[in-house]
Task: structure prediction
Amino acid sequence: MICYKCKNEINVTQISRTTECPSCHADLHVCKACKFYSPGSHYDCKESIEDPVSDKDHANFCDWFKLKEITAGENDSGKDKAAAARDAFNSLFN
Result:
């Protein structure tokens, strides 16, 4: 598994609210590391959460949280996919 923030390999089996990345010490129980995180969706989440989480980079108490399993070589956000697509498109004309 890859840390959503520093992109280093992490070996964790259970994520609690206080679990941190051993490399960068980023909180791991955060929206940006969740498989349901979807910028642009209602409250930026694919699940039917009742209350918005204002800080997507810090630990929260969301009961829907499921760690997004990112492996080496995978894009972990739509932004990265968009950048890769743009670069591929631009390389066609250069």
